[in-house]
Design a protein that fits this description.
mainly beta; 18-stranded parallel β-sheet; 8-stranded parallel β-sheet; globular
Length: 425
């Protein structure tokens, strides 16, 4: 039976969700409304407040951010970021007249957080970090109850020298350093594009010195981020600490680093054990090793790398393969890989066929995606035991016969026309 017969019924889901949200929002924390020119109390779209004010106001439990471009500093201070140091829910992608969360459309009404605070055509006067999530304060740990959802993050440039953290995580620095501290937010429906850092071009997850940094990253895209050192897109830092980042339905496209084109993980004397499900690693590049991922740990470390139902295609590096694992346990299951099974990795059901991905598009989802063709190797080829409920676009996957990679093919994707999407680059 064709999986297209299965009812995805998005209108029904939205209607039911709207009914639920009427009750849920009545019981929830205060919703604060934000716009680029907000200077009021945030109680409605007619009385919006600034983003900095909303983040610092502890009465703002949910923060709704209207379309527009937001800058961390209006006076060129590179050290200023959008600071999140408490558990809250930050949502972007609103036109500015919505009453319910599910009415927003970030793909059509983007809320952009930009570090380009200086000269438009220069990068070295940009913000060190566009977003700084700090789980080391008296407010307590940042857990997955903290939600960052529906933004484009761009223009971070972490090349600072005076403060050691100012060369890490150009798009987002997640600080969980130190015993008892934690930075593990939920990051959903996000696009990190054109960010730079010496380490962790788009994101640094910092669980150093017995700290913990284990975000959940889902339905997001990392594209054209870069690092002169480790982790073109993400650096998972668990040196003498803990990192169990989960990456579900995420696209990594054309990120560049010296080591680890998309992701670098450091588990020396710590536990660095990310789990990657239904994600795409396409055309990432490392100038040295680990075109897509480099995963490092010390001997006797409990670190593991788990990859399931994912696509690795056209990643490049000067030595070894797209994934380089050192002193850690690593498994790849039911995934498409343009190379052979990497050294020091246990591979099961590795597929070498071309997934036939379309260009990176902002289609009808919240973030840019690469849709596989039905004639490609991804179609119906995933391990059903690990199929996520939703794909990157928020489409419901079938219970059996789901597709490998971040995007589930549906009947509309079989059309030759890209519908209302457009090619990003």
């Amino acid at each position: 039976m064709s999986k297209f017969i299965n009812c995805r019924c998005p209108q029904l889901f939205l209607s039911l969700f709207a009914i639920i949200m009427v009750y849920a929002q009545s019981e929830a924390a205060i919703i604060c409304h934000v716009s680029t020119d907000g200077d009021d109390n945030g109680s409605s779209w007619a009385q919006t407040m600034s983003l900095h004010d909303a983040l610092s106001d502890t009465s703002c439990g949910d923060i709704w951010v209207k379309q527009g471009t937001y800058y961390p500093s209006d006076v060129g201070d590179r050290s200023v970021s959008f600071l999140i140091n408490r558990n809250l829910a930050l949502y972007g992608g609103f036109e500015g007249d919505e009453s319910f969360l599910e009415e927003r459309r970030p793909g059509r009404f983007p809320s952009i957080l930009s570090g380009n605070i200086g000269s438009l055509n220069l990068e070295d006067d940009n913000s060190y970090h566009v977003i700084y999530v700090d789980g080391t304060t008296a407010s307590g740990p940042i857990t997955r109850d903290t939600i960052i959802d529906g933004f484009t993050v761009t223009g971070g440039y972490a090349d600072g020298q005076a403060n050691p953290r100012d060369n890490e995580g150009g798009g987002l620095l997640c600080n969980g350093k130190g015993a008892g501290n934690e930075c593990s937010p939920t990051i959903s429906n996000m696009t990190f594009i054109h960010n730079y850092a010496f380490m962790g071009g788009a994101m640094m997850n910092y669980g150093y010195a017995q700290g913990t940094s284990s975000p959940l990253i889902e339905r997001s895209t990392f594209a054209y981020n870069s690092s002169n050192n480790n982790g073109g897109a993400i650096y998972n830092h668990a040196f003498s600490g803990n990192n169990r980042t989960e990456i579900n339905n995420v696209t990594f496209y054309s990120n560049n680093g010296f080591i680890g084109g998309a992701i670098y993980g450091n588990g020396f004397s710590g536990d660095n054990s990310p789990i990657i499900l239904h994600s795409n690693f396409i055309k990432n590049n490392a100038f040295h090793t680990g075109g897509a991922i480099q995963h490092f740990a010390s001997e006797m470390s409990p670190s593991e790398l788990t990859i399931i139902n994912s696509i690795f295609w056209d990643n490049t590096q000067s030595a070894n393969s797209a994934i380089l694992v050192m002193n850690a346990v690593a498994t790849i299951n039911s995934s498409i890989f343009s190379d052979s099974c990497p050294d020091n990795v246990t591979c099961q059901n590795l597929i070498s066929g071309d997934p036939l991905l379309k260009p990176l598009l902002l289609d009808y989802g919240f973030t840019p995606t690469m849709i596989p063709r039905m004639s490609g190797a991804a179609y119906n080829a995933a391990d059903d035991n690990f199929c996520t409920y939703l794909d990157q676009r928020g489409e419901v996957r079938p219970a059996t016969g789901c597709d490998i990679g971040a995007v589930e093919i549906n009947v509309l994707d079989a059309d030759l026309i890209y519908k209302h999407g457009f090619q990003l680059y």
